[in-house]
Amino acid sequence: MQRFTLDRWTRIGFVGLRVHDMTQMVAWYQRTLGLTLLRQDAHQALLGTGRRHVLAMIEGGGRLLKSPPGGLAGFGLNMPDQQSLLAVAARLKAQGIALSWWETGFALGFSFADPEQNQLRIAYDPGLSGSITRTYDFAAGTTLPAQAPPLPTGAWAGLPDRVSLAQIVVRTQQVADTVTYLADILGFVVQQQAEDHAFLTVGDAASHISMAVVLAKRARPRQPNHAGGRYVNLVVSSAAALAALEANVRGHHWPVKAVVPAQYLMVTGPNRLTLWFSVGGV
User: Fold this and answer.
1) Is the pTM of this model over 0.70?
2) pLDDT tens-digit profile of 135-194?
């Protein structure tokens, strides 16, 4: 029997974060990353780019833990070119934020944490930016430390329009079970797997997203009131792609909530990792 694979055009729409101090966190994302506040009320705020594209939905009322719980641990933004990557790094460094530089076989980037310990990864991936090389290989996705490159000086020009969400980071005590869920139930493709980490993708070199699963032995099971990642919106290219996903989930007897008029599915897996699938254009 052929393994189900998620629609190759699937993209990450936005991430949902529950935070302890919404006012502080909204201001931090605006000041630090240059995100635009698109809408806000007493309960939530939408942050995105200047082109009115939502990247994050932030809700208040979360309970902070001394050690972050399992589940959605962070997310990655892809820059359209290396110059933009270095410009963001220079802005963060000027604000005193510590950056950990890394590289894979196909990307250069850095990681840091927001004030409530959500992990962020900013990268330049030549494939997603249209510069695909013959050596592009998802199996070379091992993250290795890298030296910080020289950073530019000068005025901050803001985030470029073509910033996109490209990766989701999942913290878990159960790497193997989480990988099985992502691969068998949702149709991600396993590129690497070890006892303490895994790397899964959907798509090809020119259009893809990824899931990084990392072992956290002390991560408590996530509860609905815990601060941190709540859910991820994933956008598939057509109603047929959504129907195929639903059939596979139900075929594995996994709980799923479907709303036909709005064309979306909600699937919750290990670590209370909730994914909302909706239909959108390629």
Assistant:
1) yes
2) 667 877 778 999 999 999 988 888 888 899 999 999 999 999 999 999 999 999 999 999
Q: Are 75 and 168 in contact (CB under 8 A)?
A: yes
Let me know: does 216 contact 172? Beta carbons within 8 Å.
Answer: yes
Q: Which of 178, 183, 265, 253 is nearest to 5 (CA)?
A: 183
Tell me which residue has tokens 């959108």. Answer: 280
HEC sequence for 93-139: HHCCCCCEEEECCCCEEEEEECCCCCEEEEEECCCCCCCCCCCCCHH
CB neighbours of residue 144 within 10 Å: 10
Q: What angle do CA 253, 256, 258 make, to 5 degrees?
A: 135
Q: Say which residue the tokens 């979360």 belong to.
A: 62
According to DSSP, the residues that pair with 249 across neighbouring strands are none
Structure tokens at 77: 């933004």
Q: What is the pLDDT of residues 242-280, one digit of tens each?
A: 999 999 999 999 999 988 777 899 999 988 889 999 998
Calpha distance 214→181 (Å, rounded):
15
